[in-house]
# Entry
Amino acid sequence: MSLTSPVNYTPVVLCGGSGSRLWPLSRTGFPKQFLVLHGTQSLFQQSVQRLFGLTSPSLVAAQPLIVTNESHRFLVAEQWRELDVGTDALLLLEPEGRNTAPAITLAAKAAIAAAPADIDPILVVSPADQVVTDGVAFRRALTRAIERAQNGTVVVLGVPPASPETGYGYIRRGAKAAAENAWPVIQFTEKPDLETAEQYLASGEYAWNAGIFVVQASVWLKAIERFAPEISHRVGDSWAGAAVDHQFVRPLPEAFLSSPAISADYAVLERCPGSEFSIEVVALEAGWSDLGAWDAVWQLGEKDQQGNVTIGDTVTIDTKNSLIHASHRLVGTVGVEDLVIVETADAVLVGHRDQAQQVKVIVERLSSQKREEHQLHRKVHRPWGWYDSIDEADRFKVKRIMVKPGASLSLQKHHHRAEHWIVVQGTAEITCGDKVIVLGENESTYIPLGEIHRLANPGKIPLEIIEVQSGSYLGEDDIVRLEDNYQRAGR
# Structure
C-alpha cells in the first residue's frame, strides 16, 4: 500500500509529565519538554517541527493538537508562537494529568470534531520530550507508519536496540514481515532486568518502545471502548461539556478527573496483539533518545577529548567522562570521573552517571519535605513575562520582574505584605487604589499592605522593575486576584 494523495494527518503532541530525573533543570513548573537540552530549540519545539516536517505533496498536516495541563498552557502557547509555523495549535487542557490513554482519547474526539464528515483523521501521536537526530529517517519511518494506518492498523514505532537498556519498554515483533519495514506485534514487555534485556538484544526480535504511534481516530475510539470503557465514557462526557476559549479547550473537569489514570500502552496497545485490532511495528532508526536521565544527555552530547560534555561557564582539570552543566555561575572540576554536575540558581546536583535514574528520589524527598525546589526555578515564567527572586530573608524578598509589551499582571491585593517598585527599564502603568500613575526609568512607588493594585506595560519594549516586598508572610499564595487577563481571578 502507498499513500493516496493527499492524506491528511493530525499531529498530536503529548506535553505532560514532569521529567523528575532531570532535576534540578526540570521542575514541575518548567518541566523537561520546555528545556533546550539538545540543539537550539526546546524538546517540545523539536517535536512539533518533526511532525510538521512530514508534510509533502501526499501528506498534509491538519491543525495540531497539543495535550497539556492548565498550568503549562502559556508556556506551550509562547513556545508555539516562537516557532512561527503559520498556524495555531489547539491546546487541550487537562485539569490534572490522567496519563496518556485519556489524553489520546481527548485528542481523538477533538480531531474527529474538527475534520470534515467524510474524513477519518489519522492521528500521529508523539511525546513532547524526545530527541531525534536524523530527521530524514524519522520522516521515512513515520510516512511508512501512516501508509499502514490507512487500512485501520495500529502502528507503533520501535527503535532497534543498541544496548541492553533496562529503562525502556520493549516490543516483540513477529518473524515474518507484514509489509516492507513493518512487522506484526506479538507482545509488549515492561522494563526488563539486565539479564532479560541482554536476551532481548541477542534475539533480534525486540525493539525499544519509542512511545510514538499512528492510528485512525475512529480505530482508537473503538479500541478504548473495547478495552477501557470507563475511560471512553468519562473522557467522552468531559469532551461533551468542554469549554472553548480561543485556542484553549477545557474538558469538563469533573468528568475528566473521574477517568482512570492509565497509559495508552496498558489501556490499549498491549491488548491489541491477538485481538480484532491489527497492530504492527515500524522500525525507527533515526538517532532516537527519550533523554530520560542525565546519563542520556551525556550520551547524546558533543564530547571533548576527555569524554566530557560541558554546557555553560565551566573549567575542567583532569576530568573525564562527565557532564557539567552550568546555568548561572562558573563551575570548576578537578580530578573527577563519570560524574553529573548540574548547577542552577538555587540548587546543585552532583552524582555518579551510573546512578542518574536515582535523581527522582531527591525530587520525592523534596516534595515530602514540602520544599519548593522541585516545583519552581528561582526564575518563574508567567503569561505576562517572568520574575526572578533575587534575595530573601526574614520579612523581606527582592524580585526582578519583566513584563512583556502590552501585558499586565492581575488586579490584586495582598493580606500580609507591602511592595516597593523601582523601574529600571521601560514604562510602567501602575494602578494603586483609585489612582493610575505612569513611571519611567529610575522612578519608584509604594504599594501599601492590603491596597488593590496592578502593574502594566503600555510601552513597546519590555518593562523591568525591582520589587522589594516586606511583611510577615511573603509566600506566592498571598495573592487575591480580582481581575485577570489570563483567567486566574480567584485562584
In short: The longest strand covers residues 206-216.
